[in-house]
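2024-03-11 09:14:02 DEBUG pipeline.ingest accepted 1 chain
2024-03-11 09:14:02 DEBUG pipeline.ingest length=72
2024-03-11 09:14:03 DEBUG pipeline.predict start
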Amino acid sequence: MLSKGYAKFSVKHPWFHRANVLAVVITFLVSCYQLLVNEAFEYVIGFVVTLLASVLFASASAFKKRYLGLES
């Protein structure tokens, strides 16, 4: 359900989708850096956010290809 809504949203607003992907990549990179430098466990949250966002992006892409007839 969430992936269906995000798939339709990303078709209507492609620049906002690109900004979301960029924000996830930046979150991942900052979390990696902070985890390596500070060795603090709370920066693992960035990995969890990245994992959840990646699952959402992948399922939305599969929905777009299957039902909307669009390539990601």
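2024-03-11 09:14:41 DEBUG pipeline.report The chain has a mean pLDDT of 89.
2024-03-11 09:14:41 DEBUG pipeline.predict end
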